[in-house]
Specification:
Blueprint (H helix, E strand, L loop, with lengths): L21 H18 L5 H12 L6 E6 L11 E4 L6 H17 L5 H7 L5 E3 L8 H4 L2 H10 L3 E8 L4 E9 L8 H38 L9 E8 L9 E8 L5 E8 L4 H18 L5 H14 L6 E9 L7 E8 L5 E3 L5 E3 L22 E6 L4 E5 L2 H4 L5 H13 L7 H14 L6 E8 L1
Antiparallel strand pairs: 1-2, 1-5, 3-4, 4-5, 6-15, 7-8, 8-9, 9-10, 10-13, 11-12, 11-14, 14-15
Helix pairs in contact: 1-7, 2-7, 3-6, 7-8, 8-9
């Protein structure tokens, strides 16, 4: 076996190093194109790794191993190992699991994986593997025992490279009954690894940015206060399909006159700007609401500020004032709506009403072109044991069909919880429902119960 490629430095071999027929070249270009289409838009680093493994096995390899480096610790993660017969051959399945357990901690620093990971060599290409020399590839007798079970007649190991560093190593093996690899196979695998490495890096950047934005947004959301006679529950879940979080928010706060302010809204956009603007808008609304102004006046004042300061934002919002019940009376909920999905009123017997009597345009469009559309205000009595359910439109995106149909599905799902459903149960039900259907938008849910 010739191990000289392990120590050769220099650029990867050209795809044209060995002349190939037009059909073979066309097949390889088709494979690259197909792989590029499959990984485009993949936003999970582990998903890219899994996709690469399933793409090459069994197309190009009997089995493959992918090592990636944990950016937080600098250590190798447990490798992804895939074999074409692992699901049908218990012996091979056992060998795959053993290889997965062995590799991270027991790879020798002089072995080919570490040479590729360190950048000591541009690749490893062994056309004809001799099992007697397998120890040279891993300097580990246990690894040498596993490889023959998996089947190994030819192998290629290449780096997974990001823009400025190596983030992993990708090895494929041809087992018994398969042709040995050629230089053209090496060129193809190098191309696949370049695409995969860039996508792993992009997906990692996306995940870190999205996590940072989600932490920021959660930090801007309030802790719900403790208010006598009122039960409060809320939750927020970021979208699964956007690269960043949005501007969903909710708020509950006591007012100067002893009533309770309730708000929920959604600033348009899916970025840090939307998340930070959401925080500013929440405090602006609190300021206008504190003296005890009517809900429609509060929304109009917020709109005037947005227009007067040329903030250039668009947002939907519901703001309401809850008057807690006195002895023997019912609570009153007075509310106004600026283009937001209407809230729901859940009665103690399980009936669910849609509170759609108040309506108005979104924040940010009230004064466009000099046009004005006065917002209306409505009131509803809330019996003891009743709940006001508010949510953002991401919850409706989980359902197919028109807005009214989606709203009806949400209403029906709450009704199915039956009489006496607690605020916590309603919130958990709606958030779980959103997660199970992979929401296309962020979802915030706020439930206010009257004791």
């Amino acid at each position: 076996m010739n191990l000289l490629p392990l120590h050769r430095r220099g650029p990867p071999p050209s795809r044209k190093a060995v002349p190939v027929g037009a059909e073979t070249a066309g097949e390889r270009l088709a494979l690259l194109s197909s792989f590029t289409r499959e990984i485009t838009g993949t936003l999970d680093p582990e998903g890219v790794v899994a996709l690469l493994a399933h793409f090459v096995v069994p197309r190009l390899a009997s089995w493959c191993v992918l090592h990636t480096v944990d950016e937080d610790t600098g250590q190798l993660k447990t490798p992804t190992v895939l074999h074409e017969r692992a699901s049908s051959d218990p012996g091979i399945a056992l060998a795959v699991e053993r290889l997965r357990e062995l590799a991270p901690e027991r790879l020798h620093e002089d072995g080919p994986i570490w040479q590729v990971l360190r950048g000591d060599v541009p690749h490893v290409f062994v056309e004809n593997v001799q099992f007697a020399e397998l120890a040279l590839l891993g300097t580990d007798a246990a690894l040498a025992e596993v490889a023959p079970v998996l089947g190994l007649t030819s192998m290629i190991i290449v780096p997974l490279s990001a823009r400025d560093r190596i983030i992993g190593a990708f090895g494929i093996a041809a087992g018994n009954g398969r042709r040995r690899y050629t230089r053209d196979d090496l060129a193809l695998v190098l191309d696949l690894a370049v695409r995969a490495g860039l996508m792993i890096e992009n997906a990692g950047l996306y995940a870190r940015e999205r996590n940072a934005a989600a932490i920021l947004q959660r930090g801007l959301l309030p802790e719900l206060p403790v208010i006598d006679g009122v039960e409060l529950r809320a939750d927020y879940v970021p979208a699964m399909s956007h690269s960043e979080v949005g501007g969903d928010w909710y708020d509950v706060f006591p007012l100067a006159d002893g009533q309770v302010g309730i708000a929920i809204g959604d600033v348009m956009g899916h970025d840090f700007a939307a998340a930070t603007t959401m925080g500013s808008l929440r405090y602006v609304l609190r300021s206008y609401a504190w003296p005890g102004c009517a809900p429609d006046q509060v929304l109009n004042q917020v709109d005037e500020l947005v227009h007067g300061m040329s903030l250039g934002l668009l947002a939907t919002c519901i703001y309401g004032r809850l008057t807690p019940p006195s002895t023997g009376s019912m609570a009153t909920f007075q509310y106004a709506n600026a283009g937001h999905p209407p809230p729901l009123l859940v009665h103690p017997d399980g009936r669910v009403d849609t509170l759609a009597a108040a309506h108005g345009v979104m924040i940010g469009v009230q004064n466009v072109g000099g046009a004005r559309d006065p917002r209306s205000c409505a009131s509803v009595s809330v019996p003891r044991g009743g709940k006001i359910v508010c949510f953002t439109d991401g919850l409706l995106d989980a359902d197919d069909g028109e807005l009214d149909e989606a709203l009806e599905q949400v209403r029906a799902s709450i009704w199915q919880l039956g009489p006496g459903a607690t605020c916590a149960r309603i919130v958990d039900h709606l958030i779980t429902r959103a997660r199970d259907t992979v929401p296309l938008d962020d979802v915030a849910v706020l439930v206010v119960g009257v004791d």
